[in-house]
Amino acid sequence: MSDRSSKPHRSHKRQKSSLTNIGYYFPDQQATQQPSQQPSLQPFQQFPHQRQMQQPQQQQTRQQQQSRQQHPGHNRQLSQSSQLSPHQYQSASISSQSSQPSQQSQAQSSFYDYDPYNTMNYNFSSATAPSSSTGTGHNIIQGIPPTKAIPSPGRGQFGPTPFLPYQSPTQYTIPGSVDQNFGTIPQMQLQSGQYNSEAPNVYEQFTYPKSVAEFNDVPQSETNTSVQEKQPTKHNKNLSVSTRFNLFNLNENEDQGERETDAKPTAINPLFNDFLQSLVNVDGSNINNYLLQILEKLGSPLPIDDFYNFLYNNDKQASPTPVIPTHKIDKTMVNFSIQSSAFSLLDQLLNIFKIPNSLIEYFPNIANRENKLFGINYHELLRTFLAIKILYDVLIQLPSNNDPQNYTIPRLSIYKTYYIICQKLIRQYPSPTNTSSEQQKLILGQSKLGKLLKLVYPDLLIKRLGSRGDSKYNYLGVIWNQNIIDDEIKKLCDENELVHLHRIFDTKDKNLSFPRRRNHSTNSYTSIPGHKIKLKTRSKSEPQIQLTRPHTEPYSNENIIAPSFSFIKPHLKFPESDNFTILEEKDKDNWFITIKHRAYEWLKRCNLSFSIPEAIQSVFLNNDNLVEKHLLCNGLINKIVKPLSSDLAYVENADLYLYLIAILELLPYLLFLKSYPQVNYLKNLRLNLLYLIDNFNDELATINTNNHFKIEHLRRFLILMKKLININDLLITFIKLVNKDDSSNSSVMVLDIENYLNLSDESPSDIGIDEDSESRLSFKNDILSKDLIYALNAYNLDPTLDQHSRSVLSTDFIWDEVNLIGNFFRIDLLNFLNDQDLGEKYESVTSTEPNDETDSILSKKEGIKLASLLTLIHDKLLTKHFKAKYPILVYTNILSLILNDSLKYIFIKYQKQQNNQHKDENQNSFGNWWVFNSFVQEYSSLMGEIVGLYDSV
Fold first, then answer.
1. CB neighbours (10 Å) of residue 807?
2. Which of 261, 283, 628, 688 could be a cystine partner for 215, CB 3.0 to 4.6 Å?
3. CA-based Rg of the chain, rounded to a whole angstrom?
4. Which value, to the nearest 10 degrees, does the dihedral of the CA atoms of residues 520, 521, 524, 530 take?
């Protein structure tokens, strides 16, 4: 995660609910303002990413010897290497002493002579760059220089970008055919390279801020201390998705002065100056445009491998020798000195995004409220920057004079190629501080990548190609960059669907020599059986039920995927301890009280300047501080969040501890388990929580939390608060309903269990019952057994794998599980509805005061019923048998399927009975069942989320 001092990003307009629209970091909005173009750049606007190959016929002979191609900002040679090798560079021509250059100089001069790091031809738009001679061009620390809005990037508007001039090709041939989805890069004839090893490095024309390694060798007396603010340090060895995210300082004993430097450059690079001026106007709406402009203006051949390591593994940047490692994904030849300087400039820019306060070092007059960089999520910025870089390099757009339909790439192939490159980068350059699964977060989804593709290639043509019924969208006029897209990537992309690529890269201990996808038969990937499936009876000699599983996976229970907005990890299970209950036993703390005390103890060891228990009590549990709906949110910000952020320097998951404590403190009140849940308090608490859900994210974005409150954690916490409110509504409704007795003094739900949910013993041979025969419909066979098998197939889970390595589940196993679940309905739920006190071993949940009946939510009888209901769930439904065998996600899904089908089954039976005979409307129990089913599903899900939240800290 990001380590910068920033608020969670909200660059877009809030939608109706903050729960469903949290975390859209970078909406792909493009500014419409375009800077005026120089006449010489107009041809390049017409064909982005194209090489201009139009030359006058009368100059053909001379062009074959020394002509330069005009090109836009994203040009690469159409040769076997789309980037220049060091031996293809010429010395830079930066001299401009002569006011009237000779005819030969004019012939040699072209846009490839453009040097973005040379002040003598520093010009990115029609606006004239400040001159260094005036004293204001590069010393922008004096104040805020004139700024301009970030325009939507257009090809060529920033001028050509290669650093050194070189001989351009004079001829090339277009291939006659394209192999499958991947076009062959047109071959070009290059003149013999005239590389001048003594060519000056144009990056060195201006003083550059030095890296930490360089500063360590500089004597203290030589450092420039004119600037009060310190330069942000290099970001190495940090525990997060990127090594730029300093959540922990691994050198606690090192003096802060040794990690930072006071040295500042005496002059600022003109390109960096231009980036800084544009940076003032950058926010969440145009950050993608700004990142693209950085790549366009740099123009340096930065291989994708080195770019990835620069973003995520600072200790694995490019080697000090300009070689072409065969193991690299991007085999582009580079000039190391130029590449190193470009990375140095990028490092300065990313440090500003990482620590937005550092922008004040360059613009002292800017106020924090005007600094829009606080709203940009750093992790999202890095992964978006990487995606733009990959898209920028892997495709080559051909000129329009070639038939675009001869060069097509399917739209899905671009995403699959991006996915493959990201996976290879993750595995080829593992993070020193994160697992491979954590690094998966840097991969964007198809929708986001599609928007970035339109940004990088705004004029790319798209057309649906193929026969009727089998057509697919294809991009026209583009080919792959063969320096990056090799045969291995092509084969992976052509022979595998996206789901198969997921399985290939998810396989443990898989090297990069990935095998071809097997030609599975149709039986290998059968559809997941649904509720309409008929279970055929097997012979007694083979009483087995086949669980379909892919042949590529030796263990089918390793592919459980956790929901996006959940704390539950894929294989996390409920605690098997006996005290896993929300009810309080006499002289014994339950599991929830125990983990609450541990969370308090952890925060206590952080040496906070305030008492966290007193602050929690004041904010959440004091009715006087809840009389207005906004008081809880304001109190949480002012009394807890701000002091906590200032007291904790770099502590991981501090926000999760706070969220865990808040939920565990509120849970007993919202479940009516405390002895004094007064009506006014619960009413005010509900209103304040609803306000908190809608506004906490916005309020948090206005303050500096030192990145302690992460956006993904906040999003999940707010969802849990909403779930708490729903459970509170369902619980009070159900308790009131089940205490309404009919004239015969028996619950209508009891009659449903006895009449509709017929749970009489059936033999396993009855599983082959015909579903179309409604008269023989069985609750055990047609609901319990089928839903269990459906869930196991959906998660590819074999609960017996821990004991027996087999690929099938026997009918006996299914039948044993069905009987245990059936006993919950047939015995335990029936006892609860018959007013049996299941929670007698727990402390009373109602008030013992004699005169509180009028102000209490529940009566004594309803309190007993409440304790029985919670005991029913914890002791009878969440038994050790199920908690030890099934992950939380699987078991809660099984419960949801069974409860939903039971509700539908009861409704159909009840409706048919009503058609046959008149029935009193007061006997309708469908509403009771609906509330009960909803409560059980929400409550079991909440218990799993609390377990997942505790596991996360």
1. 12
2. 261
3. 34
4. 130
Q: Are 809 and 689 found together in one domain?
A: no
Query: Quick one: which of 279, 42, 27 has its CA closest to 149?
Result: 279
In a domain, 838, yes or no: yes
Task: Please check whether residues 754 and 686 belong to one and the same domain.
Answer: no
Q: Report the domain count for the chain.
A: 3
| Angle between helical axes of 411-428 and 446-456 (0-180°, round to 10) | 100
From 824, 872, 866, select the one nearest 738 (Cα to Cα): 866
Note whether 713 and 797 are same-domain residues.
no
Judgement on whether residues 745 and 669 belong to the same structural domain of the protein: no
Question: What is the predicted pLDDT for the residue at 801?
Answer: 66
pTM of the model: 0.46
Q: What is the pLDDT of residues 722-762, one digit of tens each?
A: 999 999 999 999 988 887 754 444 577 888 887 766 655 44
What would the 3-class secondary structure string for 758-802 be? CCCCCCHHHHHCCCCCHHHCCHHHHHHHHHHHHHHHHCCCCCCCC
| Residue 479, strand partner residues | 396
CA–CA dist 492, 669 (Å, integer): 55
Residues 6+ apart with CB under 8 A from 789: 529, 535, 545, 814
CA distance 300 to 483: 16
For the segment 281-314, what is each residue's pLDDT rounded down to a tens digit? 888 889 999 999 999 888 777 899 989 988 988 6
CA distances, 652 to each of 1, 314, 461, 615, 662 (Å): 10, 21, 47, 21, 18
Nearest-angstrom CA–CA distance, 674 and 580: 18
Show the tokens assigned to 388. Answer: 């733009």
Same domain? For 825 and 904 the reply is: yes
CB atoms within 10 A of CB 580: 18
Beta strands in 684-834 (DSSP E): 808-810
| 490 within a domain of the structure (yes/no) | no
Percent pLDDT > 70 in the chain is: 56
Q: What is the DSSP letter of 844?
A: P
3-state secondary structure of 465: strand
What is the rounded distance in angstroms from the CA atom of residue 496 to the CA atom of residue 621?
A: 56
- Residue type for 454, please? K
Place of tokens 């939510």: 857
Q: Alpha-carbon distance 540 to 125, whole Å?
A: 82
Cβ 306 vs Cβ 312: under 8 Å: no
My answer on whether 791 and 695 are in the same domain is no
In a domain, 910, yes or no: yes
Q: Report the alpha-carbon distance of residue 661 to residue 296 in Å, rounded.
A: 48
Token pair 């799993």: residue: 944
pLDDT reading at 783 higher than 60: yes
Q: Which two tokens stand for residue 318?
A: 């490019």
Q: Are 162 and 298 in contact (CB under 8 A)?
A: no
Domain of 809 in residue numbering reads as: 741-758+776-847+855-952
Question: Are the C-beta atoms of residues 397 and 50 closer than 8 Å to each other?
Answer: yes
Q: What is the pLDDT of residue 698?
A: 87
Question: Is 192 found in the same domain as 139?
Answer: yes
- 733 assigned to some structural domain: no
User: Which tokens belong to 582?
Assistant: 């929300």
CA distance 158 to 490: 33
Q: Are residues 748 and 613 in the same domain?
A: no
For residues 493 and 413, the answer to whether their CB atoms sit within 8 Å is yes
